[in-house]
Design goal:
ABC_Transporter_VariousFunc; 2 domains; single chain; AAA+_ATPase; about 300 residues; four-stranded antiparallel sheet; Rossmann fold
């Protein structure tokens, strides 16, 4: 299987409000995918469609080779944005519920994680800190032994230490279970720390997707004497441009060597790259291909 999930012309409408429009995307299997985009881009709607909590208004989405929301649900772990837990239930109650609802439940993983985290199984979820609730939700997602783990900004409300601990635990689970992961986040640092594949979603459309190492190796900032972008070689694709009276700055993508000595050339950080694509004008609705897709 080459894709964890695929969306084709996917749309979701709530009454008169269009939350997702004509979204076409392929998320590769066997990767830790960072899904990044501005508020309102449709990230949460897309992920809720992927796990079958919503049904599409238009288009289609397949997860692990089957239509979303069908019998492959046992193979998907999901940690929602608010890391939902039941305040009146104890940690032990959550694990019992997980075992009852998930046929592939691994109780040794669940209890081992809770013990390693130093949590008291008798403690009610409502008494846990935000970081502890997030860890409990991650435990429930991992212990069902999914093939695909989807996380919708699970660390957005956590402090930096709790966020780092959560992501470290996630990476350990990925290494141990060989999971495919989709992590939605508005923090580029989280993606940089934990992901090897990037998708930037803006206004429901994929602006760039590919292996992070490949993307960083093929994007550059050029600074030099002012010139029109049309004068650049055809193999240098301009992502963004800015000018002063005497100077031009271009962010470009290219697989070729930059030979013009007039340019000062630097590579982009991941944050530079993400912001550049988030700031692009949106492509035509008639073009259902991403602005850039890079794969090895």
């Amino acid at each position: 299987m080459s894709a964890a999930f695929q969306a084709r012309g996917l749309g979701k409408k709530y009454g008169r409000k269009q939350a997702l429009t004509d979204c076409t995307l392929e998320v590769p299997a066997g990767r830790v995918v960072g899904l990044v985009g501005p508020n309102g881009a449709g990230k949460s709607t897309l992920l809720n469609l992927a796990v079958g909590m919503l049904t599409p208004t238009t288009g289609s989405i397949e997860v692990l080779g089957n239509p979303a929301g069908t019998t492959q649900q046992a193979k998907i772990g999901f940690v929602a944005q608010d890391t939902p837990t039941y305040a009146r239930l104890s940690i032990a109650d959550h694990l019992k519920l997980g075992a009852r609802l998930n046929p592939g439940w691994d109780d040794s993983i669940a209890k081992g994680r809770i013990e390693r985290l130093g949590l008291d199984p008798k403690q009610r979820a409502g008494k846990l800190s935000g970081g502890q609730r997030a860890q409990l939700a991650l435990t429930l997602g991992i212990a069902k032994r999914p093939e695909l783990l989807i996380l919708d900004e699970p660390v957005a409300a956590l402090d930096p230490l709790a966020r780092r601990e959560f992501l470290q635990d996630l990476m350990e689970a990925v290494a141990e279970q060989e999971l495919s992961v989709v992590l939605s986040s508005h923090l580029v640092s989280d993606v940089e720390r934990s992901c090897d594949y990037l998708v930037v979603l803006v206004d429901s459309r994929v602006q760039v997707s590919g292996e992070i190492d490949t993307l960083l190796a093929t994007h550059y900032r050029l600074v030099g004497p002012r010139r029109d972008e049309k004068s650049l070689p055809s193999g240098q694709h301009v992502i963004s441009a800015s000018h002063t009276d005497r100077q031009s700055t271009f962010l470009i993508r290219t697989d070729e060597h930059i030979l013009d000595p007039a340019w000062t050339v630097t590579q982009l950080t991941l944050e530079d790259l993400v912001l550049a694509y988030m700031g692009r004008s949106h492509p035509s609705r008639h073009n259902d291909r991403p602005v850039l897709e890079v794969q090895r």
